[in-house]
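Q: I have two molecules that I believe assemble together. Could you output structure tokens for the complex as a whole instead of separate predictions?
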Amino acid sequence: MTEDTRTCSHRLLVDSRCYPIAAFHKALYALSHLADYELRHTEGTCIEVTLYPKAADVIALEASFRQLLADFAIQVQVNSETAAIRHALVTAALAESLRSRGTPP
Amino acid sequence: MSSASASLRRPFSDPTVFANAGDSYSLAPFRFTRIPGIARRVLLVNDCGEYHFLPEDTFHRFHTHRLQSTEDDYLTLRSKHFLLDNYAATFWPYAVSQYRTRKSFLEGGPALHIVVVTLRCDHTCVYCQVSRQSQSNTQFDLSDAHAAAVIDRIFESKSQHLKIEFQGGEPLLAFDRIRAMVESIQRRNIVEQRNIEFVITSTLHLISDAQLDFCREHAISFSTSLDGPENLHNRNRPNPNHHSHAQTLAAIERVRRALGTGSVSALLTVTRGALSCPEAIIDEYAQLQFPSIFLRSLSPYGFAKRTHQKIGYSAAEFLTFYDRALAYIVKLNRAGTYLEETYTRLLLQHILTPYPSGYVDLTSPTGAMLGTLVYNYDGSVYASDEGRMLAETGDRMFRLGGVDDSYDILFSSRQARALLDAGVAEALPGCSDCAFLPYCGADPTYHHAVQGRAIGHRPSSDFCRRQTALFQRLFRLLAQGDNEVLPTLISWLAPRSSFRAQD
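A: Yes, here they are, computed for all two components at once.
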């Protein structure tokens, strides 16, 4: 992590091969009450994340970001892997309701 | 050795019989989180609402398909629909049935119909969300024509169970309107054959013997407001003679004598003044032998928004109050006094059973409009009571149309579409990956009122903060297998005797 005291920003480089871009979006959204942020693709395989903390402890903020990024990477993978099953589950449940109740209200 | 004696010696098949050939399995959709205070365990929740805690390393082996089919966690995850393997045939009927049950509140159409018969009122409550009118100002009463149209709309719902709630202002000031509507609805129900429940939300101060006789005859129950001990109640709910609390208690007793002890329920609104005295408030409810208390936070709607600076509080302050109050309620229960906290009971019902409560804030798609309609005295139809309160300050975001509009028109209005766009938690940023989603709701009305956008910004939402904290508390108890608090909370899920007007 590098710190720019002039802009009160903190920059991290993360290898994008380890985490899908959707995980970055979700992790940063979850922290958007604590920091503004910028995302930038760099040369090579890294993504540069610049955090502009609103008030929070920067060390804790970075730790939260890294934990959320790792968790959301798993969640994104699970969502992708299970999308067809989720779709089938919802469709089957609603189809059964329509069959048994007739037309919706 | 005969096969019969072998089966007697080992009544259950060897676990290897159930092992999945090749140990291959597919994941079923789930979300996960970690609960503060529960170290190295991950909470998984699936779309059916089943949950399971896994040790961190087991979790990582599970989602990377490395769990062995002979492991206990594997068998539990399979039985709770977190994975599909060679036994996938058993997954579909059960998972579909559970999911369908969770969303069954969508099947019948709106079941709760709130009719605002007048805006006239004899109180000047500090948190009043609507523009109350003086007792003589009858131009703020529901008209004959609008009342007839309201009845048409109510029966347009396909819900077999209809709850019709008369509100105000003070609805007893327009009791003739209530009387005419109840009689008309009951006549029409001879053909319709619905299960209809009537409730009047009232201070009860103005109730007469004739009104009580009518309510007894037509099985009408009451919901009243009780904010706790005398000084707090009188401060929150002043009336002209400054004896609001004493009059409320006397009226509750009078209604109970006439209609039975279960005929009146009471609602608490937590103001800043209540934060320091949860025990006194709870004692008040216990002494009056109410079976439940609902620790409701202040609504930031309508005119109440203007007084929020004076009587409001933060989510953190409310949670501190809630913890203290819940601990005291549990203590009373363990000492033999039955008193449930309604919100905790609703959350637990969502976690531990597949049955929806229908509570508007905790449904997705939103219970506003899909589960509830509000008919205002002026003939406007709103998606929820909160939507009506907002309209009183000029924000008509949740006005679906007029009482003369059919459901087709109301449900396809621009406002209805906007509400649904923001009312499906599964599609909202911040909610879509939240582990608590199957138990929670989107509450677009709250987010529109507080944040200016119905979709809302969950990371800074007090609603989300409060919900998350309450779910975390309950899952902490579940993870710890708590033997003191949890049995009391779970006992609240057991069905209690319902109101009988003649008892």
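A: One point stands out. The first strand of chain B starts at residue 26 and ends at 27.
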